[in-house]
């Protein structure tokens, strides 16, 4: 290769390295290079000096202590915010200082927030007329400050009608609108950024006036609960609609990027509460885009997207907020005929759960049910029990096909025939084992033989399934199976973190005679329940349901173990709530008190009903 060609190749690789911002040094891991523009943007940002860092560390220590009055707290916050002036940006971008400011913001007034946002904008813009929050929004510490400030503004919206705060509120609106304009202009950049996406989500909720709470252990929050509404504002509503409409121009980003997808999900949820028509427009727009990507194939469905972790979660949210017309289009064009195969997929089964749970009418639910139930055993084989639970909950919600589903479940667990096997169905459901796997081909012929296989291995989804089946209008088979459990299995169930909930729901469906039989079966075992974390909760439930004679029987059973209960971390609550010391010393007086409490509870129940 001649020297001129070598020079051209060198220039090409130098240019490529600059554009991709990637190091190609041999033997070293690829490193992310900083763009020159980023250096120029952050060159004017000061660092927090050691003296200020020490001051804010002492502020953090003071915040750990309680304030004697609200006035003292407000005065302290005002003094600290006066020290923030002039160093808001370095404080927000400092790893320790930002934590202090983040704790102060929930206590800030409207005026203090105005001053903070004004200083942040002025210093970050560096004399420019345009808003320039990007360095702060995309900073690992600064993003938390912006997110907390927006959440505080949401809570302050309820005070905007106050005459003293109205002037400050107008200034605050001005800064928020400038921030919104910048976010709309650079929406893909902010949404794809790990830290920036959280700020955009907080901005969406603040503009829409709906603060979504964090997800629960189940992975999601119902749209009807977990919301904190604030008064609507025409200014913010208009800004929200502009941002929402802009999001439709970047559907590919929201569909494929793990950081951006939750932003669109948040927009959908806020729209569902505030702007239902816009919500349906956004959902239909996303589905149209997905369909357009698959138009060349023989089958126009979204299965490839259902099986992707990022896009499937987005589709779940679209299903959840869909009204009847959009839901029908989504189901008939993309889900119908594929529900069983999707339910067997490790990721696609979650959109199927949402389809089942969100069916808007009994007619649509019946169509879904009829397609899935014949293949229920194949779904069970993949251990995707969430799909089966949603089907059971749908049967309760729509009042449809309850007996048919229960019969299919008995067949799936191989305990439908002969009828004697049905008495074991509760154990099979709770452990998610078929009859042969549970008893290992040794069929119990009566209750005595059933004791030979002690209950163990109760699983979370199995517990949920039994709780749901107990809610059926005819729960005789499942309830009878639970009532036939020996006392040792009942103790195991009560002391299990998942099984205790089954026993809790079971007691709600027992009549007085059946409840008395349950207490008789547990007699002699109550001390084990009382000294267990989960069993003690069942004891409280049983106590509140019992009449005076039953309470007396429970107290007599526990009284000999009163010393053990008082020394146990869980049992001492039982000893106190049941007044066992009083029972041992003044039994007659104890009975009078319990009788009065039962009468009082009945009176209040009658009033509430």
Q: What does the model show?
A:
It is a single chain. The protein has 609 residues and is mainly α. Helices cover 68% and strands 1% of the residues. The protein contains 40 helices and two strands. Strands 1-2 form a two-stranded antiparallel sheet. Helix 6 runs parallel beside helix 9 (142-156). The model is unreliable at 1-43 and 215-226 (pLDDT under 50).
Sheet bearing the most strands, described?
A: 2 strands, antiparallel
Question: Which range best describes the helical content: under 10%, 10-25%, 25-40%, 40-55%, 55-70% or over 70%?
Answer: 55-70%
Can you count the beta strands?
A: 2
Question: How far apart, in Å, are the first and last alpha carbons?
Answer: 93 Å
C-alpha geometry: globular
Number of helical segments with 4 or more residues = 40
pLDDT < 50 stretches = 1-43, 215-226
* Beta content: under 5%
In short:
The protein is mainly alpha-helical and 609 residues long. It has 40 helices and two strands. Keywords: Nucleus, Repeat.
Write the layout of secondary structure elements.
Elements: H1 3-20, H2 36-42, H3 50-63, H4 70-84, H5 88-92, H6 97-104, H7 110-125, H8 134-137, H9 142-156, H10 163-185, H11 187-192, H12 196-208, E1 210-212, E2 227-229, H13 234-247, H14 251-256, H15 261-274, H16 276-293, H17 303-306, H18 309-321, H19 324-335, H20 339-343, H21 349-358, H22 362-372, H23 376-381, H24 385-398, H25 402-412, H26 425-431, H27 435-439, H28 447-450, H29 460-469, H30 476-483, H31 487-494, H32 499-508, H33 512-522, H34 526-530, H35 535-545, H36 548-558, H37 562-567, H38 571-577, H39 580-585, H40 587-608
Antiparallel strand pairs: 1-2
Helix pairs in contact: 3-6, 6-9, 7-10, 9-12, 10-13, 12-13, 12-15, 15-16, 15-18, 16-18, 18-21, 21-24, 24-29, 26-29, 29-32, 31-32, 32-35
